[in-house]
Structure formats: structure tokens, C-alpha cells
Amino acid sequence: MNRFQNIVILCFALALTSLLSCKKDALQGNASALIGTWNWIRIDGGFSGGGNGQNPSTVGFTLKLELSADGNYTLYKSSKQVEHGRLRKNGNAYGLVSDDLKKRDNILSGQYITRFDDENLYIEDAPLCYDCFYYVFKKAP
After folding, report:
1. pLDDT exceeds cutoff 80 at 127
2. Average pLDDT along the chain
3. Which of 112, 130, 139 is nearest to 44 (CA)?
4. Full set of structural domains in the chain with CATH
């Protein structure tokens, strides 16, 4: 093999390794409560704490978030898949990272699951953001 072929093979191997090593965090222990389907019910928070009045009725669409045990998420807007990605553990929060980073109109990518229990899920701009708006999701039956 000539030197050019060796360089091409090396570049291909490095690219393949970097693609396969994208980190996602499996949902284990307490975080296993996240696994399942979540329906958006409203936006709360903000400086006044009263939210911005947005909910499925006021905006004319629904959001459904599916979280899988392997750390992947899929977001549907009125039954159409609009976002897919993975969860990344960040302290006490889980960051949502889209698989399509070039897409400019991601809804949840770059935000964080900051609080959750068996029934409710809260997604906001940043962990420990006390005056940010946040999405409130309720677990589907």
C-alpha cells in the first residue's frame, strides 16, 4: 500500500471510532422512572413563576416525548417525529442532545431534565436556573 492509502485508512478508522463513541447514559436506578412516554401539559416558571400561558390548547399542537432505557429520546410534535437524540448525565440533570446538530429548530435539544418523579417531568434551559421557563410533562398511562 502506498502512503496515501494508509492515510485514508487511518482517517476512516478515526472517523468511525469517533462516531461509535458518542456517549449516552443508560437510565439506571432512580433514573429508570424516566423510561416511557411523556405528554407535554404546559410551560411554567419564569420570573413571576406563572409561566407564559403556553399549553397544547393555546399553541395548537401537542408534544410527546419518548425516553428509552438505553438513553435515547424521541420527540413528536402532533404525532410527527421532529427530534431524536440521546441523554447525557450532567450532575443531577440529564441534558438532551439532538442527533441532528445542524438542525436549527430543535425544541428540546440543549435543554435539561432537571426534576422528575413517577408522574411529572420538568425540562428547562439550564440546571439550577431559578427564573427560567420550563416544560412540564406528565407520564402517559
Report:
1. yes
2. 84
3. 130
4. 24-139 (2.40.128.20)
- 59 three-class SS: helix
Cα–Cα distance, 90 to 81 (Å, whole number):
25
Q: What is the mean pLDDT of residues 43-58?
A: 82
Residue 80 CA to residue 73 CA, distance in Å, equals 14
Non-local (6+) Cβ contacts of 50 within 8 A are: 44
86 touches 100 (CB < 8 A): no
The DSSP string of 4-46 is: HHHHHHHHHHHHHHHHHT-------GGGGGG-EEEEEEEEEES
Arithmetic mean of pLDDT, 99-109? 84
User: In sequence order, which residues have a C-beta less than 8 Å from that of residue 66 and are 6 or more positions away?
Assistant: 36, 37, 38, 73, 74, 75, 76
